[in-house]
Specification:
Strand content: 15-25%
Strand order of the largest sheet: 2-1-3-4-5
Distance between the termini: 23 Å
Number of strands: 5
Largest sheet: 5 strands, parallel
Radius of gyration: 14 Å
Structural class: alpha/beta
Order of helices and strands: EHEHEHEHEH
Oligomer: single chain
Number of helices: 5
Shape: globular
Length: 132
Amino acid sequence: MVTQPQRPLTVLVVDEHAAVRSALVAALSAAEEIREVRAAGSPGRAAEAAADWQPDVILLEVKRRDGRGLELCRTLAAAAPDARIVIVTSYPDALEELVTSQARVAGYVLKDTQPHELLRAIVRARSTLHKH
């Protein structure tokens, strides 16, 4: 059986820390599986970018200073209904995992995950994308 090549993914990185966003954008932009990476820090800009751009995958840090990361997760899921969300977080949290699992989250990885593992989680999220 011949497998069709996968089209490169579009990824929106959402993290309130500019240095983290820049590092993630740089790392992901170099991957051949990724066509384009954009980034947003504030919840408003993230929701606007998700709604306007409709990325394939949203890479989201939910531990935010304002404590509203899980709410942002639900907002982004509504703004880009065909996108899959991969949570990237500083440390595991059982309640966070439970709540995000109810918001169509396709992956949950720690920030100290190796870059190739993060990329694998993003690519794996593709398998849950809706077929048009």
